[in-house]
Amino acid sequence: MSIYKRCNFCGRRIPEGQECSCKKKSKRHYEYDKTRNNDRQFKFENTWAWHKRRNEVMKKYGGIDLYSYFKFNVIEKADIVHHIVPVNDNYSLRFEYCNLIPLTEANHRRIHIVMDSSKAEKDKVIKQLQGIISTCRGE
């Protein structure tokens, strides 16, 4: 089984180690960073403790995007670690393994678009991601 990743710009699936044909390079999280207004979260994401925990989570799950694996039955290399319950909603969960899931940037964007659409959709996605983590942890 091949390992795939998603293009950061167009979201197309491509084999690991290859570049997408769209060849468009964009700043990582450009839109997200442009509209960011939470200094507390920004400071947290730049701490040594967060980078250490992020690396621990990636290592724990083998650097695989768990959302792609469980939802689409595809193995893709994860780029980032996502907080299932956002840091803005519950700051105390920011380091908890049960609240962290590795994702590709494309899936991360997709999840945030759905979570930002409505409270009901946000709750649905949170439960789905928590279920994936519970399955991985054997709960």
Write up what this structure looks like:
This protein has 139 residues and is mostly helical. 47% of the residues lie in helices and 10% in strands. It has a two-stranded antiparallel ribbon. The chain has a two-stranded antiparallel ribbon with strand order 3-4. Helix 5 crosses helix 6. About 4% of the residues have low confidence.
Descriptors for this entry?
139 residues, mainly alpha, two-stranded antiparallel ribbon, 10% strand
Task: Give a nutshell description of this structure.
Helix content is 47%, strand content 10%. It has six helices and four strands.
Biggest beta sheet summary: 2 strands, antiparallel
Helix content: 40-55%
Strand content: 5-15%
- Estimate the global geometry from the Cα principal axes: globular
Continuous helix count: 6
Which spans have pLDDT < 50 for at least 5 consecutive residues? 25-30
Mean pLDDT: 84
Order of neighbouring strands in the sheet with most strands: 1-2
